[in-house]
Specification:
The relative contact order is 0.14. Helix 4 runs antiparallel to helix 6, helix 6 (106-120) runs antiparallel to helix 7 (126-151) and helix 15 runs antiparallel to helix 17 (455-469). Helix content is 40%, strand content 9%. It has 547 residues and is mostly helical.
Length: 547
C-alpha cells in the first residue's frame, strides 16, 4: 500500500510539472521577476507546491538522450561517428564555446531562491513551511553540486537577483572550490532533520540530504581536491554514509536489474530519483535511444551506448574472482561463460537474447549487429549493447517517451560502497568495510571478499565493485575525475570484441574499437570550462585554466 501511495504521489508531482507549463506559465513568466502575483502564488500551499514542483522538474536525467555521460567515460562509447562524446569529448577538443556545462542550473537555483524567500516570508502553516523550505534548499544544494563537481568553484548566490533593480551588482565573482563545497555541506547538515526519513515519492528525504552530503564529502576527500590526503575528509564522508545506514530506512532490492523497472519505482533501495511519466512529454525513451540496434530484423533503437571491453573485463566470475585472478576459470575463447549475475543482467553480448530475439555480433554470418569495424552504421562498435535498466516492452525505436521508469540519482548500494571506500581510506581495513561490500556482493550471489586484504588491495576491490555495480548510472566519469584517474583511463584506446572464424573455428579477439580513441589533457580537463556566454555577460568571472 505504501509503495502504491508513493507511486501516485510521484506521478502527481510529474503531472503538476506538466500543469505548470500548460496552465500556470503565467506564474513562471511573472514570478521570477519578483514583481507581481505574490498574493496568488504564495497564498496557498497548493500554489506554492506548483512552483516547487517546477524546481523538481529541473532535475537532470539521461533517459531522453542517445549520448549520456556514461559515454564520456571508459565504460562505454557512442555507436555514432557523429556523436558528441565521440567527436568532441573523447578527443578533448571542447572549448568554452561548445563544452558540456551545468551552468543552466542557475535558472533552477534562482527559482529555489525565490521560493525560499517568498515562502519564508509567507503566512503558510509553519510545519509545512519547514519541510518545503528544506526541500527547496536541498534542490538548490543539489544543483550547486552539479556545478561544483564539473566546473569547480562557482558564484554561490542565495538572494534573488534583478538586473533592472541591482544593475552590475548581479554579476558575482566565483567562490573558491572550498567555499562552494562548504556551502553545500553546511546547507545539507542544516536541513537534514527538517526532512522526513520516509518522504513522499519524488520528494527529498533525510536520506537524500545525507546521500548528497556524503557524495560531496567523498568528492572533496578524493585526490582531485585532497592531494595531501587529509584523512579527516575521508572520515567525514564515512560518518555521513554511516548515518544513512543507521537510519535503517533502506535495504537492497532483491533483484539487481529489476529495481530499475517502472513497476519497481520508489523501491526500498531508492533514496532519490527523477520521475518520468510515460505516454506524455515527460516520458523516458532509454530503450529506443540507447539499446540494441536491430532486433528480429527491425531497428528498435538508435543504439547510442556501446559498453567497452574494459568494462566487460571488470565483471567478476560467478565464483567471485576477477577474470585475471588465479583460479578464476576464465576462458578468453569462451569469455561469457560462468560470469556473475550483473554481467548477464547488464550486457547484451553475442548469443544472448534481447526482446525475444537472439543478438549475433559474429562477423560474416549476415547479422546486422556484427561488430562494426568501420563505423558504417549504428551497429555496436564494441561487440556489446546495454541491457541494464532497459525494459524489453519499450524496445521502440527513437524517442518514444513511453516509459515511466525512474532515473535513480542515489540508491542504497552506492551508500554501502561509498562508505566502504571512505572508511578504508580513513582507517584502513576493518570489519564494517567487509560487511558493506559483502552485502552488495551477496545480492548477486557472489561469495564474500577474502579476509586479510591490505588497504591497497581493498581499495582496488572497492573500486572494481563500484564500477560494476554502478555501471550505466552516470557515475563513472566523475569517479575518474575525483580520483584523478582520468589522465590514465581516458588517454589511449577503448577496446572491442571481434568474433570471427579462423580455420573454421570461431575465435574471440580483443581489438581496438573503431573510433575508440580517447584523449584527456590533465592540465585542464579535470574541470569543464565556464561557458563563454557566461564569461561575456559577467566580466567578474574568471575562466578555468587552459580554456
Amino acid at each position: 500500500m505504501k509503495k502504491i501511495y508513493q507511486q501516485i504521489i510521484g506521478k502527481c508531482i510529474v503531472i503538476f510539472s506538466l500543469l505548470i507549463f500548460a496552465s500556470c506559465s503565467k506564474f513562471l513568466t511573472i514570478e521570477p521577476r519578483g514583481q507581481v502575483g505574490d498574493e496568488t502564488l504564495w497564498s496557498s500551499e497548493l500554489n506554492a507546491d506548483l512552483f516547487l514542483n517546477n524546481i523538481y522538474s529541473g532535475l537532470p536525467g539521461t533517459f531522453g538522450t542517445y549520448d549520456p555521460p556514461e559515454n564520456f567515460s571508459d565504460n562505454a562509447m557512442s555507436a555514432h561517428s557523429w556523436g558528441f562524446s565521440t567527436t568532441t569529448i573523447k578527443t578533448a577538443i571542447y572549448t568554452a564555446d561548445n563544452a558540456p556545462t551545468q551552468w543552466g542550473h542557475y535558472a533552477n537555483i534562482r527559482k529555489a531562491n525565490i521560493f525560499i524567500e517568498k515562502v519564508g516570508n509567507s503566512n503558510l502553516d509553519a510545519k509545512w513551511k519547514e519541510k518545503r523550505l528544506a526541500e527547496a534548499r536541498y534542490l538548490r544544494a543539489y544543483y550547486y553540486s552539479l556545478l561544483w563537481t564539473n566546473h569547480g568553484g562557482i558564484p554561490v548566490i542565495t538572494d534573488i537577483l534583478n538586473l533592472g533593480e541591482q544593475g552590475d551588482e548581479v554579476f558575482r565573482s566565483r567562490n573558491t572550490a572550498e567555499e562552494t563545497f562548504q556551502f553545500i555541506s553546511t546547507e545539507l547538515e542544516s536541513i537534514k532533520n527538517s526532512l522526513p526519513v520516509f518522504a513522499e515519492a519524488s520528494r527529498a528525504s533525510k536520506g537524500a540530504a545525507l546521500a548528497l552530503k556524503g557524495w560531496c564529502e567523498l568528492f572533496w576527500a578524493s585526490p582531485l581536491y585532497n592531494p595531501d590526503n587529509d584523512l579527516s575528509r575521508w572520515s567525514n564522508a564515512a560518518s555521513t554514509y554511516k548515518e544513512i545506514i543507521n537510519l535503517n530506512a533502506y535495504q537492497l532490492f532483491p533483484e539487481y536489474n529489476a529495481q530499475f523497472m517502472e513497476e519497481n519505482n520508489w523501491n526500498v533501495e531508492t533514496i532519490f530519483a527523477k520521475a518520468y511519466l510515460g505516454g506524455t512529454a515527460l516520458g523516458a525513451s532509454r530503450e529506443g535511444l540507447q539499446g540494441t540496434w536491430i532486433v528480429g530484423g527491425q531497428q528498435l533503437s538508435w543504439s547510442g551506448v556501446d559498453p567497452s571491453q574494459e568494462l566487460i573485463d571488470e565483471y567478476f566470475m560467478a565464483n567471485g574472482l576477477a577474470i585475471d585472478a588465479p583460479g578464476s576459470g576464465y576462458n578468453p575463447q569462451n569469455p561469457y561463460a560462468n560470469r556473475e549475475k550483473r554481467f548477464y543482467e547488464s550486457i547484451v553480448y553475442d548469443g544472448s537474447v534481447w526482446a525475444g530475439s537472439e543478438i549475433i555480433m559474429k562477423q560474416g554470418v549476415g547479422s546486422r549487429n556484427e561488430t562494426d569495424l568501420a563505423s558504417k552504421n549504428e551497429s555496436t562498435n564494441t561487440g556489446y549493447y546495454i541491457r541494464k535498466g532497459l525494459d524489453p516492452k519499450y524496445a521502440i525505436n527513437g524517442p518514444h517517451m513511453q516509459s515511466s521508469a525512474n532515473y535513480i540519482i542515489f540508491r542504497y548500494a552506492e551508500v554501502l560502497l561509498a562508505y566502504a571506500e571512505a572508511q578504508n581510506e580513513a582507517t584502513g581495513p576493518d570489519q564494517s568495510i567487509y560487511d558493506a561490500i559483502n552485502e552488495v556482493r551477496d545480492r548477486v550471489d557472489l561469495p564474500p571478499l577474502a579476509n586479510g586484504l591490505t588497504q591497497e588491495e581493498l581499495r582496488k576491490a572497492i573500486h572494481q565493485e563500484r564500477r560494476v555495480e554502478m555501471a550505466f548510472e552516470d557515475k563513472r566519469y566523475l569517479d575518474l575525475i575525483r580520483l584523478k584517474l582520468a589522465e590514465t583511463k581516458l588517454n589511449g584506446h577503448m577496446h572491442a570484441m571481434l568474433i570471427a572464424q579462423e580455420g573454421g573455428v570461431w575465435k574471440y579477439k580483443v581489438i581496438p574499437a573503431t573510433q575508440g580513441e580517447m584523449v584527456f589533457h590533465p592540465e585542464k580537463n579535470y574541470l569543464w570550462p565556464i561557458p563563454q556566454s557566461a564569461m561575456d555577460r559577467n566580466k567578474n568571472l574568471t575562466q578555468n585554466p587552459g580554456y
